[in-house]
Specification:
The complex is a heterotrimer of chains A (831), B (328) and C (172).
Chain A: H1 14-25, H2 41-44, E1 59-65, E2 71-77, H3 79-83, E3 87-92, E4 116-117, E5 123-129, H4 132-141, E6 143-148, H5 155-158, E7 175-183, H6 186-192, E8 195-203, E9 215-220, E10 226-230, H7 235-246, E11 253-257, H8 272-284, E12 288-291, H9 294-300, E13 306-315, E14 321-331, H10 339-348, E15 359-366, H11 382-399, H12 403-409, H13 429-440, H14 442-445, E16 453-463, E17 478-484, E18 490-494, H15 503-515, E19 522-526, H16 543-570, E20 577-580, E21 583-586, E22 589-595, H17 596-607, E23 611-616, E24 636-647, E25 654-664, H18 671-690, E26 696-697, E27 703-704, E28 723-728, H19 750-762, E29 765-766, E30 768-769, H20 773-781, E31 786-787, E32 801-803
Parallel strand pairs in A: 1-12, 7-32, 8-30, 10-11, 14-15, 18-19, 25-28, 29-31
Antiparallel strand pairs in A: 1-5, 2-4, 2-6, 3-5, 7-15, 8-13, 9-10, 9-12, 13-14, 16-24, 17-18, 17-23, 20-21, 21-22, 24-25, 26-27
Helix pairs in contact in A: 7-8, 11-19, 15-16, 16-17, 18-19
Chain B: E1 8-10, H1 15-25, E2 29-32, H2 38-43, E3 51-54, E4 64-66, E5 72-75, H3 80-85, H4 87-92, H5 94-101, H6 106-109, H7 114-119, H8 131-136, H9 165-171, E6 175-180, E7 183-188, E8 208-214, E9 221-227, E10 238-247, E11 250-259, E12 266-267, H10 269-275, H11 282-293, H12 306-324
Parallel strand pairs in B: 1-3, 2-3
Antiparallel strand pairs in B: 4-5, 5-8, 6-7, 6-8, 9-10, 10-11, 11-12
Helix pairs in contact in B: 10-11, 11-12
Chain C: H1 9-12, E1 16-22, E2 25-31, H2 37-44, E3 63-66, E4 69-72, E5 85-87, H3 100-107, H4 117-130, H5 136-142, H6 154-170
Parallel strand pairs in C: 1-5
Antiparallel strand pairs in C: 1-2, 3-4, 3-5
The chains are: A alpha/beta (831), B alpha+beta (328), C alpha+beta (172).
The complex binds flavin-adenine dinucleotide, iron/sulfur cluster and FE2/S2 (inorganic) cluster (2 copies).
Chain lengths: 831, 328, 172
Amino acid sequence: MTAPKDESNGAPTPEREGLEQQLQEGLRLIGKSPRKVDGMAKCTGETMFADDLSLPRMLICKIHRSHVAHARIKSIDTSAAEAMPGVVAVLTGESMPNSFGILPVSQDEHALCIDKVRFVGDPVAAVAAVDEDVAFEAMNAIRVEYEPLDPVFSPAKAIDNDVEPIHDYGDDGNVHKRVSMQFGDVDQALADADEVAEDVFYYEGNTHLPMEQHATLAVREADGRLTVWSSTQTPHYLHRAMSKVLEMPPSRVRIVACPNGGGFGGKSDPFNHEIVVAKLAMLTGRPVKVTLTREEVFYCHRGRHAVLMRARTGFKKDGSITGMHFESLLDGGAYGSYGVASTYYTGALQTVTYQVPTYRFDGVRSFTNKPPGGPKRGHGTPQPRFAVEVQLDKMAERLGLDPAEMRLKTLQPPYSNTANWLAIGSMGLGPCIEKVVEGSGWKDKHRKLPRGKGIGIACSSYICGAGLPIYWNAMPHSGVTVQLDRGGGVAAFCGATDIGQGSDTVLATCVAEILGVDLEDVRIVVADTAITPVDLGSYSSRVTLMMGNAAIQAAERAREVVAKAVSKHMGIPAVRLRFADNRIFDVQDPEQGITFAEGVALGEARFGTIAAAGSYSPPRTPGKYRGAGVGPSPAYSYSAAVVEVDVDEETGEIEVEKIWIGHDIGQSINEMLVIGQVEGGVYMGLGEALMEEMAYRPNRFGVHKIPSMLEYKSPTTKEMPPVVTYLVEDPDPNGPFGAKEVGQGPLLPVMPAIANAVYDAVGVRVDEVPLSPEKVLKAIESKDKRYGPKRFPDLRITETMRVKTEAEGGDGTAPRPPRKPKSEKKEVASS
Amino acid sequence: MMRLPPFRYHAPDTAGEVAHVLANEGPEAMIVAGGTDLYPNMKRRHQMPSTLVSLRRVTDLAGIEWGSDGGVRIGAGQTLRALERDPGVEGALPALWTAVHQISTPVLRNMGTIGGNICLDTRCNYYNQNYEWRRAINFCMKCEGDVCWVAPSSPRCWAVNSSDTVPVLIALGARVTLVSDRGVRELPIAELFVDDGIEYLAKQKDEVLTSIEIPAQGEARSVYRKVRRRGAFDFPVAAVAVRLAFDGDRVESADIVLNAVGSTPVVCTDAAERLVGEVVTEDLAAEVAQVAWKPAKPLDNTDLTHMWRKKMVRVNVKRALLELAPGT
Amino acid sequence: MTQGSAPAAAETRRKVHMQLLVNGEAQEVAFLPHKTLLEVLREDMQLTGTKHGCELGECGTCTVLMDGEPMLSCLVLGIECDGVEIETVEGMATGAGPHPLQTWFADLGAAQCGYCTPGFLMTAKSILERDPNPSREDLVEELSGNLCRCTGYLKIYEAIEAAAKDMREGSQ
Ligand SMILES: Cc1cc2nc3c(=O)[nH]c(=O)nc-3n(C[C@H](O)[C@H](O)[C@H](O)COP(=O)(O)OP(=O)(O)OC[C@H]3O[C@@H](n4cnc5c(N)ncnc54)[C@H](O)[C@@H]3O)c2cc1C
Ligand code: SF4
Ligand code: FES
Ligand code: FES
């Protein structure tokens, strides 16, 4: 175990050396499974989620939403609502003309629509009233006159030039983003291949469905400043959007992210309802709260994009890949959201699991008149992962290879650069595969189970935070301050938000490990833009790695102050000091020591109040071409899953009987939390694989077909099979204590492993997610024993950026494309 | 949070008083038992009774009374959970037990009653949506609109009878008792249902369902098979109840009842007749399933596709028959 | 569809005043008669430990115990709770400390985001009161009305089993 490097000041101090030795001697908390710091509060009802807050004189807000899919707003009549007793304010879009959006390149949302509505559910007006009943009546009393425009619901249609444009920006027609890039000579590689696979896949959109419906409470403070409590995963970005739309200096806007009742990416955009209640609070001078109905949560969406994909991959007889051409068409829905990043992500990580020496990616995101897609657990990568892993399975059979063996032989080596210039660090996929193969008894089962029973394997990888921030800047991605109290207490401050993944515990654990105190001695203050240092947010699996590194640095700096003072006091060199069990003692004579509190007092007496800051910025990435912002990460996690299924051939119903999953975590910070994330990811993958879908009724004005917990199917206890988890710990030099992510990765292999198992069971290919019983049955009844899309539309790619690979002697750059007539758009990066 | 619309509330103590309140309040009053069907509908504003008459305090709607002959009288106010926990139901009426046990979730069964399950509003995924959603489709015939979106050229509503217990109760030959201020009437439960998504019950608005009587089943065997996406929460999208009485190896009498494939339960008389006097074999089961499959006419207004649901009728009738055949 | 003449506001906007027996304490509370128990608990009694995810009976998040049985508080009226013993997550811990279920849920990571947790705890408590040693299959069945999007349920089973063991041993 190595102590984290502190790049800010060069030579190792004796204090730091002492810490390094302390960590090498053994970790007290890291890798163990103590209770989460917020664990008990969540079991007593004490944790306050956003909707649990209420304030005196609080008003309730309801939002009137568009009931047409695409139209110009002709007029809004709020008079009846305004006249209702108990209605305090009615708001329309004109009062908030500034647009916003999560990405700098897609500032295309308004808190309330001004001239146009773009999907059923788009917010048009809002009321604040004395209670929920009055607010509901008033919301329904608002009358909006629309001039209908032709809606478009299918991405294939949307990318035609002759449809009504949904936005006045984008690449052309309803193409929001079109990208094309090539690394190495893919055509040649496919020509050189022994076998070329070409498959078309479809991955239906699905949504996060956090159990908690989004809620926000806003209050105008006595001095005119604004405070907002919200169920958001990204208080920092909400802070920016809020200040922009309300035209208030950020210094007077305070966003507090409440613990999220589940997020999964669904609370990572700044949302219209958050801005609306803030505006209403500023206007009325009263606290205003909004809590979305479940139906409205479906309209927030920002979930998994529906993606149509084509993969053309060349293979050698031994199963190695010569090259891959991957194309994706994303159904973006009505707004940009993270969509540009999502588009890149459908092409970015194909190269990080198996060696893909040449690679081409073409992607298009279309606008359609539906709730916007965005980042859901695995952001943009489960769809291509499904395609790649199912295609590999097909090819393994064609080549007569065992699919597990074939994967093991083609692994991307650790500490290498991929064709698309992603820098791979530690790489534990091999052991993951070996463990699940062994644990599941794969060799005795694959192609050997009785008909109806099947087993399948798939692998995946995910980023541990994005290498670049959402808006380009040179500042750290995460900051932590640590403050020591002379009573021995430690306060740790960080902007990160706990959405259930346990970031509060990671923060406390890292700090407690370094300072040698118990978790109970660390009080954490998080996710408050007025008080805590910026952390960019709980997305792209970045928090453990980035916040963890920042926390270590902050704690280490605080420790250094104390160590200096104690070393002087005890008359021994600081390198001999150990911080453990709330004591500071001499490693050569452990009896000799003082309490941590006494140490802090000494430090405070000598150096004054002890507070230290730490921060983290990811290492620079080797890729320097346009679009290289999406995909790089300080580290990559890896997962492999084996799934056993039982398929009913008469009904097409799939029962998943057991799942074995191996995950390369680098190093667990808290093993219990890691396993919890693995199991949760598997659960969510199971839902996506079998039943979850964002379904619409294009023939009925594009309404969401099933905006309820009953009809949008989330697996119950009855569908969840036993899961055997294997953790592979191959510490990554960039991770805090070597840790990598686990929040998103383990979801990824589940869907393709199930599809591959279904093939093993009944010999049919369902090249589409979800694998609903109808589709399985159709495949069984079909001639070609397949269900799935057959055609892929022309993406009308006119220009492909060509980047030389490392093998070609490239340097990560691409020749600059010719400048467009309009001013070049800002680069976009990250998750 | 989604609020209920306001209403007047009565909670009488006897079924007679319930009938009396209903008579006084007129057709805009509704009975509420467990509320697990009615309250969600009220929150979504597709049922908006001005008066609720609660059965919660009514004592004479409770009870599961077994007769000496093996028949049973079940009070309409009995919770599904009480039925599920009744050893007599599990032992003597396994098909009913299965149907009850598969309704939604354990916690919902603690609240929902058998009476409410029988009178359950028909369902349709154009209808079981919030007010704002339905406004986006201009409402539909069943509530505030005039078109049926499932079959736009049709003059009627095709909302689906989605009760789990109803097909079993019909197969078992149950009778129900209805009480109103005008008197008491008793009828076979099959006659309670009407093939219309809106007026789906032959029960008058002022009538309260007080009890269900199931005759002794003797040696007859019965089974219930429910098709749905998940193992909990979900309503049936196709349901099959079969009751067979045997004379030795041969079928003496047969009842096959489908539900959740139309606005009313489907009694498959032709298919049942084909069984009488026969030994149930794999081939016969398949043949009968093919006959039973014909009258099932699911439309596209529930979960899963209607084509698949129709196929599932055939699969499940066959499986039900084979399950009941002696020696299996 | 039954669309009644809406009762006059004067009639329905008048709060009822009644005693509710919550977590062993009789409390006076005034609320609008069309409010559900969930709304009364959260809004009129500040007992926000009971959560909501749908308000339509479709998720189990709002589960409370009524006379010891788990019920969906989003589908019960406040006025229907006259004389009913109501128990919420806030009442689980006794003076001596947390309920073993709370301890084990916290210790074994059965609460991730914790939003579904109060509902699960309530259902779990009723399970253990009926059966001190439930099998895994029993748990799968009895918990099938509580959705959790975070855990995949596995840690929840483990926590209940551990608590059950504790309680069996404690009561010997
Ligand atoms: C999420 C969810 C899932 C569900 N899943 C299923 C399922 O899988 N299968 C299924 O069958 N049902 C299901 N239900 C529907 C319902 O919960 C049950 O059918 C339950 O049995 C209804 O009983 P109740 O007492 O709660 O009815 P209530 O809601 O009280 O009443 C339902 C209807 O019956 C009338 N009524 C009730 N009692 C009487 C009486 N004695 N006399 C005359 N009229 C009466 C009411 O006026 C109302 O119109 C589900 C409900 C929900 C919310
Ligand atoms: S079947 Fe037709 S009329 Fe009936 S509820 Fe559905 S859409 Fe409405
Ligand atoms: S809030 Fe979902 S069941 Fe009550
Ligand atoms: S712990 Fe988050 S929903 Fe269950």
